Amino acid sequence: MGAHDNIHIPKESFPNWIWYAIEAVIVIIISFTIAYQVADSFEVTPEIGNWILTGTFGVCFLVWYMGIRHLILKKKILRNKY
After folding, report:
1. Does residue 74 sit within a domain?
2. What is the pLDDT of residue 1?
3. Domain that residue 28 falls in
4. Which residue has the higher pLDDT, 73 or 50?
5. Distance between CA 8 and CA 29 in Å, rounded?
6. pLDDT at 42
7. 10-51 pLDDT tens trace
8. What is the 3 state secondary structure string of the chain?
9. E strands of 1-82, at which residues?
């Protein structure tokens, strides 16, 4: 049995930037959902509620990109390089 030359390798054929776009959309959706639930739990005026919504959204977004993604997902053990 020989090797096939026409094997589909997703890493080589699928544009790499699409994974970053998919990740950003997922993070935005999750951050907005968390921010909406947190802002809805307070009984404040709409102006203060907007600040709570925006602040919570920003904190979730920064926690993901500065904390989780930078510290956990960039570990050498998770890299797939040979």
Report:
1. yes
2. 53
3. 12-78
4. 50
5. 31
6. 86
7. 666 667 778 788 888 999 999 999 988 988 888 889 899 899
8. CCCCCCCCCHHHHCCHHHHHHHHHHHHHHHHHHHHHHHHHCCCCCHHHHHHHHHHHHHHHHHHHHHHHHHHHCCCHHHCCCC
9. none
59's torsion region: left (phi>0), alpha (psi -120 to 50) or beta?
A: alpha
Domain count, the chain: 1
> Residue holding tokens 């050498």?
76
Distance CA 7, CA 10 (A): 10
Token pair of 59, please?
A: 């904190």
pTM of structure: 0.67
Asked, for residue 71, whether it belongs to a domain, the answer is yes
- Is the residue at 1 inside a domain? no
